[in-house]
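Protein 1 of 2
SEQ + STRUCT:
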Amino acid sequence: MKPFERENVDIGWCPGCGNFGILTLIRKVLDDLGAEGRSVVIVSGIGQAAKTPYYVDVNMFGVLHGRAVPVATAVKAANPELTVVAEGGDGDMYGEGGNHFLHAVRRNVDIVHIVHNNMIYGLTKGQASPTSQRGMETKVQVDGVGNEPFNPLAVALALRAGFVSRVNIGNPEHAKSVLRAAFLHRGYALVDIFQPCVTFNKINTFGWFKEHTYELDASHDTADPGAAMARAMESGPFPLGIFYRRETETFEERVRHGQRRPLYLATHDAAHIQALFDAY
């Protein structure tokens, strides 16, 4: 058995799907960091990408479409000692879950937000997602996508996210170094992962992502929000790496001012429970 691999589980992805690489990536990073399965929680919504935690030997919580982030926020607030991940696809996180994405950034919740970005809805058979490129023809958008694609990195930066990054699963070593840094970051960390859907997106393939991306080099200042925003606005080609990084007070630290105990340590004493309600 490989570290963090579940026994006797059939993986429900198409052969060649980019999700396999992300699954391997998450397992390797958790192993490299010496994480214990009982101390990790992965929360996911609905979609092909959202199946990932079913294949990782950690705690998991499957929720409604687009609702992984608020549940991950609650888990982390209840027990700040856990390593908490919100994970799903570009439709799940930026479409149905877009509003939750915005407010997790604002709150600076100490979670790793992993988004499988294949620029298509895979589970529902190939309609355009929020990140589909303009002009892309699908079985639903037969005359081509008319909307501008959603730019999650620019939005996260505009809301002053503490860790903003993008990787290509076609370059696993680079992706591993960025995801590892995200897990070590204190506060909200966005990792947008380019991941081909080999069945329903014949445009944004492994080859396309390789040709249309480049890695940020050492000259990029990850402490400069202006430089980060300028890079985030690029799309021909797309930059990869850590765009911006800073640590500030987290959501969990703010709600615990006054030395209130985390919820998982709360007793069933009526007076203590009333004090918790009064404090919030």
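Protein 2 of 2
SEQ + STRUCT:
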Amino acid sequence: MSDQRLKDIVPFVASVEEGSFTAAAERLHLTGSAVSKSVARLEARLGSRLLERTTRRLEVTDAGNAYYQTCIRILEELAEAESVLAAHRTIPSGRLRLAVPNTYGRLGVMPLLIPFCQQHPEIDLSLTFSDRFVDLFDEGIDVAVRIGQTVDLPASLGCRQIGREKMVFCAAPDYLQRAGTPQNEAALMQHRAILYERVDGSTKPWLFTTADGHPEWRSVPYRMALGDVDAQVQALCAGLGVGQMPTWLVHEHVQRGKLQVIMPQCQPHGLALTLVWPRRKQLLPKVDALLMALGALEISPPLAAPALDQ
């Protein structure tokens, strides 16, 4: 990109954001004529009208809006590149955008973010809780925490696997006192299952490990199917049946005695916990500091499995 092309982008962006050449000129410490000529030069080079001039205000055309979005990304990347070159700074600062899954974000990530923010007062954290797929580039995310497979990631994304879920079968102690505690898979299948219901209406099967160590998903009949993991935990604690849950989700309930681990010898590994970030941002002090803090995330806390009195 030539110097002149870059020089013309800045007045154009300022004109769009300020709504007039005069206000853009004041912002850039230029004359209104200089800003107007710069935008006209840009339009002539592109062969497209970017701004409609009115007596009161500039109006952005469809082509101008599309070009403006591109210019914003270019200027942001230039600013980030300058920050990378100054990565020797010891104080992470600036806006930091993090995307996390809903429930794991609350239970697993937030306990680490509180001391992180206390340690780095110069960082302004923006946190998005969502179970949907988040596009880091389209949504301006610096780091994402994901539970699930991260195959076929583009080369522009960095990825670090923190660990894998450990799945456990569990139920409320009073349910097991009424229905009995299963000691093998055949007995387990006779109990009332509480399953997770996917968006498409299907239910998530239970995960087992075969004799040769391979994962095996098995569909099971169920008493209740819920499309929310927190609701699953509530149903289990209420004694409505048996469920297979990740340890990070039921750890606290097991410690408090609200849930009991069943068949502790059967704890297969579930989904992977990964950190994902744009590679061009990984040398930014704020991103590097966050990645180091999130490296302490725990996805499979150990669970005690005290025996029930029969």
